[in-house]
Amino acid sequence: MNQPPTDRDTTRPAYSRLFWPCVLVGWAFVANGVRGLLENHRVVRLSGFLRVFIGALLVHDLLLAPFVIAAGTVVSRVVPRPARAGIQAGLIISGVVVLFAFPFVRGYGRIPDNPTILPRNYAEGLVVVLVAVWLGVLLVGAAASGLSRRHAN
Amino acid sequence: MKVARAATVAGTEVHRRFTSPLHDDRLAAILGLALGVTFTTCFVTGLISHTLQHPPSWFTWPSRPAGLFRITQGVHVATGVASIPLLLAKLWVVYPKLFRWPPVASVAHAVERISLIPLVGGALFQLFTGTANIAYWYRPMPFFFTVAHFWAAWITIGALIVHIGAKITTTRAVLARRAEPAPIAADDPAARDGLSRRGFLATIGAASGVLVVATVGDTVRPLNRISVLAPRRLGIGPQGRPVNRSAAAAGVLDSARDPGYRLVVDGRVTRPLALSLDELRGMPQHEAILPIACVEGWSYSARWCGIRVRDLLQLTGARPLAHARVESLESYSIYGSSPLNRLQAHDPDTLLALELDGNPLAPDHGYPLRLIGPNRPGVDQTKWVHRLVVL
Lengths: 153, 391
Hints:
The complex is a heterodimer. By secondary structure, chain A is an all-alpha fold. Chain A has 2 domains: about 20-80, no CATH class; about 80-155, no CATH class. Chain A has helices at about 5-10, 20-40, 40-45, 45-80, 80-105, 120-150. Chain A is extended, with a radius of gyration of 24 Å. Chain A starts with 6 loop residues before the first helix and ends with a helix. By secondary structure, chain B is an alpha+beta fold. Chain B folds into 2 domains: about 1-180 and about 190-225, no CATH class; about 240-390, Sulfite Oxidase, Chain A, domain 2 (Alpha-Beta Complex), CATH 3.90.420. Helices cover about 45% and strands about 15% of the residues of chain B. In chain B, the strands form 2 sheets. Chain B has a 5-stranded mixed β-sheet. In chain B, strands 3, 4, 7, 8 and 9 form a 5-stranded antiparallel β-sheet that branches. In chain B, helix 2 runs antiparallel to helix 6 (about 145-175) and helix 3 (about 70-95) runs antiparallel to helix 7 (about 195-215). Chains A and B meet through helix 2, helix 4, helix 5 and helix 6 of A and helix 3, helix 4, helix 5, helix 6 and helix 7 of B.
């Protein structure tokens, strides 16, 4: 926001004048969501809901993010420079794909009377995707190093 | 002021321990914008789906275009899937901010940070439960998915509105500046020569693209074979079509095959009817090519043949603007009946279908009679119909 440089603005530089209206509207939405959950507490089962809601936060902040940061540190120290960006890209995409594919590969949702649910071989599918991802990384890496070599010449 | 300065100094100190130059405001702003678009898209399309399934009295959803719901719900699921890498990347980029000290610098800042709990918790909850649901993985969801997912969406979007209000100034300022190379953490050579900012964004974009292509084939036919992680495969199932609920699971195998089966048409009519299967087959048949679009994102188009609901309304002497409800033999399920608003009830392609692709319906597709209408969620295309109530 291009606000005129008044004294007031220098004391609160980061927040636009839209902030408090957004807080009001936003928390009205949040309150509506909470109201809906409370009204439907029989089917939502609040303890189960909160377990997953808070659990997702904790699993991300205390397990997943530190793990990714640790893995990133290892990669940046172990992998030689020319390959580093490519390896990072490949690992990021592979990690996300593995995370997403996990319940499919394990086949948790399969039920005997309905073979149309999860009908594919997801372990094989995951391997196919990962091979494609790393081939893509190799191709992009080769193209990039070719370009930079030509640039250097 | 002193507090703010001390917090900045302390924040900078902690920030230095996260050596990657990619923990920066520009990336946070760009990923934030992308998530703003994808989450808003999911919210609007989700709201449409919810309103269709629980229509308020003032709301009359049109029956045309026939494939509209197929598109809005396909977009809902694909956009949610595409958001997974975006959200994880965004959280990684801003992760060092979690440790800033002191934690709050002003009242506004405290409000902003408290609102991060519903924002991050809600965003993770929505993407996790959405994914678990399309994978039919119900164990980690000790609650009824659709209700929880719907109300958690309000919480998430509300917190997103607060966050937009808090970040609008920074985002504008950061994006208005010319992109400078991300500052290298000078004391850590190991952080150099990894992904650039642009490379990181390209990687996250690629990850979203890979996930979407790997799953969207169960609604985008040409990608059916390529989408190796899609929860369905078109071509697999009774009559080559996937189903969500089998006749056995619904407990209707016997009642559906009962020779005494009748379709009852009653309610606000002058001439109620009870029609046997042969009588239904003897009525004027109408053919329509219509999609079935599941809320889980998969869909297929097929050729259906049966009796127009409109014809039944006329035959029984219903009012010209009557609406209706169909009821299933699967009476105890929450999806055992579905409403037809006046536009849907009078659409020439809204059928009580006897045939799919020229053959009698398989039991899993709703034998002897199922509802199929344009622009409706799959859960409302009620199977094993035994009653049409005119309202």
